[in-house]
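fyi for ur records
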Amino acid sequence: MGELMDDRRAMAVLQKHIPDVMADPEITKGRRYSLRFISGFDKRIKAALPAIERDLAANR
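which gave:
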């Protein structure tokens, strides 16, 4: 998550798909975990994960 949060383009993808999650200050506690791992604990992320992964792949 930390790598994604530090990358401007990846952060834009996250904010597009899960803006409420990214606006939560608690998200910084998840920096050392993968997005896929965190999705196991948050329904919003899990639902958005396929679209996030698709957009991240398109931005590489």
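The radius of gyration is 10 Å. thats all i got for now
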